[in-house]
Amino acid sequence: MVRTGGRAAPTGPTLAVVAREAGVSVPTASKVVNGREDVAPETRRRVTEALDRLGYVRRPRFDASKAPGLIDLVVHSLDSSWSGAVLHGVEEAAHDAGLEMVVSAGLTRTRGGRPERGWLDKLTTRGSSGVLFNLAELTASQYAWLDQHHIPFVMIDPVLEPPPGVVSVGAANWQGGVTATEHLVALGHERVAVVAGYRRKMCSSARVAGYRSALVAAGVRQRPEYVCYGGFDETLAHRRMLELLDLPEPPTAVFVCSDRMALGVYQALAERGLRVPDDISVVGFDDLPESRWTTPALTTVRQPLSEMASTALRLLVRMMAGDRPESTRTELSTRLVERASTAPVPAGSSGTSPHVG
Fold first, then answer.
1. pLDDT for 269-315, tens place per residue?
2. How many angstroms separate the CA atoms of 312 and 210, rounded?
3. Are 94 and 313 in contact, with CB atoms under 8 Å apart?
4. Cβ 117 vs Cβ 48: under 8 Å
5. Where does residue 233 rank: exposed (0-12), middle (13-18), buried (19+ CB within 10 A)?
6. Rounded CA gap, 138 and 128, in Å?
7. Which pLDDT band holds residue 132 (cuts at 50, 70, 90)?
8. Is pTM, for the whole model, over 0.70?
9. Which residues in 183-215 are b (16+ Cβ under 10 Å) and which e?
10. Which of 21, 118, 167, 246 is most buried, with most CB under 10 Å away?
């Protein structure tokens, strides 16, 4: 069931019961519920645990006549061009829809396995009409909290498969993995490695699955040692590329599941005296501005980040109006952007590259 917040607010313990359970006054408990900062950390912890233990549900204070167009955008971080593209897409769509936006970087951290509630409670305090989560990994408690408070939300590129009924927008990651690998195979490469992100992340596993499918379709041998994970981190990708180069039969081409990781791969290749694409071809994923600035410019799979964000905003607006989307999962197409980092296997190499120690 799509979470549009159309039901009556459930009953539950009063704030007085919560205060008594936590051993504090009602005004102090109220400060915690409303996200006030003037509460001692230990007191906040006791009240927060009591709120969770008793299942306290804070009633929204939203007044449509005062703030009819306020939404929250929660991004994983604000220090990357990836987040910048998402922010741009949401901002443009919000402007067109006449909405104001509050941007937060990162979800509220957890303590002792329990989600802190201050940030979530602030949603109702400031009267947000809906939330967009980008690269978020929500807990079951956080999903339940949003549902109980009837706050519509949409996930942009969720980390894990969302629960049934949760609306999400992403890219066609499986097809992107297929396209990148097919491009390398078409150039004559048979030793194609993949440097993926996280094993359990939805987009990463889909890209690896696409890579495997393309190899099978082309009749190219799959090599388990050619599949490695770099956690979408430049430093880890650098390390994984060095490990691939140390194999008895190193790859002649590598599909890197993010442009940021491709920077680390480039560095590893340069350290070993290998040239891109003369000695080894590289394909990235994202088509961030960095992919055009590298030398050579990076062939990559473009995922439409700004379009994903604007699509999510439009879906959220519909949910805020009480409409139910036809589908809970929307995928936008990816496409290969060919630049200078890929080339045919050098003549006489028979699909291999020299081992570089």
1. 999 999 999 999 999 999 999 999 999 999 999 999 999 999 999 99
2. 24
3. yes
4. yes
5. middle
6. 18
7. very high
8. yes
9. bbbebbbbbbbbbbbbeebbbbbbbbebbbbbb
10. 167
Cα 23 from Cα 40, distance rounded (Å): 14
What long-range pairs does 29-38 form, CB within 8 A, spacing at least 24? 32/117, 32/118, 33/58, 33/117, 33/121, 34/121, 34/125, 35/118, 35/119, 35/121, 35/122, 35/125
**Structure-token match 């019961």, residue found:** 17
Chain-centre distance for alpha carbon 140: 18
Tokens of 86: 């998402």
The amino acid occupying position 65 is S
Task: Write out the E strands in the chain.
Answer: 70-75, 100-105, 110-111, 114-115, 130-134, 153-156, 167-171, 192-196, 227-229, 253-256, 281-286, 299-302, 329-332, 335-337
- CA nearest 207: which of 281, 341, 290, 301? 301
Of the two residues 357 and 136, the one the predictor is more confident about is 136
Residue 168: closest CA among 159, 158, 160, 178: 158
User: Token pair for residue 25?
Assistant: 């006054």
